[in-house]
Amino acid sequence: MLTSIAGKTCIVTGASKGIGKGIAHVFAAQGAKVMIVARGEADAVSAVKEIVAAGGEADYCCCDMSEWSQVEAMFAKTAEVFGRVDIVCANAGIFPQVKIADMDPEDWDHVMSTNLKSTFLTVKAAIPYFEKAGEGRVVVTSSITGPVTGFPGWSHYGASKAGQLGFIKTAAMELSRYNATINAVMPGNIYTEGLQGLGQDYLDTMAASIPLKRLGTVEDIANAALFFASKEAAYITGQQIIVDGGQILPESLEAITEI
What we know:
Blueprint: E1 9-13, H1 18-29, E2 33-38, H2 41-53, E3 57-62, H3 68-82, E4 87-90, H4 105-133, E5 136-141, H5 155-175, E6 180-187, H6 193-196, H7 200-208, H8 218-229, E7 240-243, H9 253-257
Parallel strand pairs: 1-2, 1-4, 2-3, 4-5, 5-6, 6-7
Helix pairs in contact: 1-8, 3-4, 4-5
């Protein structure tokens, strides 16, 4: 059993839905005080109400994670509300599907800013709080798409997710002086609102191509993030773990039929 994170303060960005919401729920269920960070107030308020109804402690902050002043203000609010910042789950991200031939340069910049720049800004803003606390944890939500696999229409998304893994290598060295770690979880296909929008045919096809024969749940990702945030993971930094049900293992669809 992992050492309890009860009483720790955890910021989860992109936490009003999907994987971020799942992380927030799991951390709150373990006794952490959770700051829900999202762009939309209505969804953020709803996420807080769900956690509180389940017996957890949470608040929210609306923030554009690609804007430095807003990120700084969000951290300041978290420290004001909960007294400190111990754990940061950098989960904010978007994945609009558009092929390279049809992609405007602005589309590329928007994804990079939301997914990759926000990761840098989140870590930069966390440093003073980790220095004050004498320790800290950062867990980044990356993806198998980009670092390991590819899919038409997601070149910008894949590049941003691969960029996150490159970033954490040096960030891990720089954060070490504050006794803080940074690691990444790399989800495969996780059943969220975002994937639902891709249609049932896509969901069925993807589930059939995964050795465990199902899409992942948000709790599958949240549990991996919980480990990286734990005391037991104190000597792990600059690393990543794939959570995909074995999706990247088969060398062909024929391999799946042999299972």
